[in-house]
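Priority: medium. Attachment 1 of 2:
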């Protein structure tokens, strides 16, 4: 863990160009390793149930043995409804979470901002296509491990030192099935992915602190050299803090779910600011700042109010909490902006050329294809 932090610092100090090149290489290897892992997992299931090496039979077996794992829209009786609360996946909190992550998170947008508009759009379209591979690379192997574990395989590998089954052990266990050469390559790519991800986040932290906090509030006349030095110090401090906090997440049942829930404390406020700030000229800075300040307290109250009231207040799934907070903050920003006197200050206006929103026919066709595939997947696996 410390080693990953040190490597991340080194990569971050090399700048976004180094991070970009690292991303391209490791993504290619990760996809290849993920697809091979999926193939081996389905083959293993097929052999376990007496169908030889037929991966299609293996897929049919896991659909038969774990039918509930192939539904994306759950009803309230489902054990995992709290994580994926029914239609909120389609029309609620999932949109807030994803729009905030893919559209408002500097860790993501900085990769597009470094290119011209056409290249950035093509990159986003390609990323959307890669996202469609996630079920093959991650979900199918996970379901496969569930079926194999239920039928007596990998009992020791899936448990921690206390004998408790840990779902996060699934993928590392499957990676051990890879041939020796590919296993090492996939592990190296996975390590590179972690390092590149940490480096990208550290770069964002450095930029935000140096330009939006240090220069604005502590040293308005800071030179470029001073800002670079401050950014580097920020990277080192952030990685040290991350290394200290990370071990505390080891005891979580599913770390990814934990991260998604608590990022959801911030997402409603950030997204409300961006949406209204971009698409409604009447939005005021005071209203936006209020939304940013209230998003965490409101989310915290909704999270813990059921336990504080001994169940008198309903315990909403975290995606529904995000929806409630988002709607409240949107209305609050609108009311506060309308209640404030209108001020015309052209120097603070963001002028947007509407021609920039025109897309090429190729981009439109690609987008329609991806949306069509998504619609088909949700129809088949509803």
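Attachment 2 of 2:
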């Amino acid at each position: 863990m410390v080693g990953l932090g040190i490597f991340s610092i080194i990569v971050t100090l090399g700048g976004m160009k180094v991070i970009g090149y690292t991303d391209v290489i490791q993504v290619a290897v990760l996809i290849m390793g993920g697809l091979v892992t999926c193939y081996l997992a389905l083959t293993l299931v097929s052999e376990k149930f007496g169908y030889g090496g037929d991966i299609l039979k293996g897929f049919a077996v896991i659909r038969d043995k774990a039918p509930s794992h192939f539904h994306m829209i759950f009803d309230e009786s489902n054990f995992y409804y709290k994580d994926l609360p029914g239609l909120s996946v389609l029309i609620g909190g999932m949109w807030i979470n994803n729009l905030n992550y893919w559209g408002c998170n500097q860790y993501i947008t900085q990769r597009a901002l470094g290119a011209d508009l056409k290249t950035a759009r093509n990159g986003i379209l390609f990323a959307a296509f890669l996202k469609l591979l996630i079920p093959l690379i991650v979900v199918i192997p996970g379901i496969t491990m569930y079926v194999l574990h239920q039928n007596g395989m990998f009992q020791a590998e899936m448990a921690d030192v206390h004998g408790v089954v840990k779902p996060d052990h699934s993928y590392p266990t499957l990676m051990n099935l890879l041939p020796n050469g590919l296993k090492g390559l996939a592990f190296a790519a996975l390590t590179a992915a972690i390092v590149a991800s940490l480096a990208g986040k550290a770069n964002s932290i450095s930029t935000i602190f140096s330009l939006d906090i240090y220069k604005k509030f502590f040293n308005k006349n800071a030179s470029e050299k001073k800002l670079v030095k401050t950014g580097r110090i920020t990277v080192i401090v952030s990685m040290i803090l991350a290394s200290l906090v990370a071990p505390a997440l080891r005891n979580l049942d599913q770390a990814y779910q934990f991260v998604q829930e608590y990022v959801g404390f911030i997402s409603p406020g950030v997204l409300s600011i961006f949406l209204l700030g971009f698409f409604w000229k009447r939005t005021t800075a005071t209203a936006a700042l209020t939304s940013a300040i209230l998003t965490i307290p409101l989310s915290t109250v909704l999270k813990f109010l059921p336990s504080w009231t001994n169940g008198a207040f309903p315990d909403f799934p975290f995606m529904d909490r995000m929806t409630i907070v988002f709607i409240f903050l949107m209305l609050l920003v609108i009311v506060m902006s309308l209640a404030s006197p209108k001020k015309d200050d052209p120097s603070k206006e963001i002028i947007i050329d509407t021609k920039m929103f025109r897309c090429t026919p190729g981009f439109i066709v690609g987008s329609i294809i991806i949306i069509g595939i998504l619609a088909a997947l949700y129809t088949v696996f509803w």
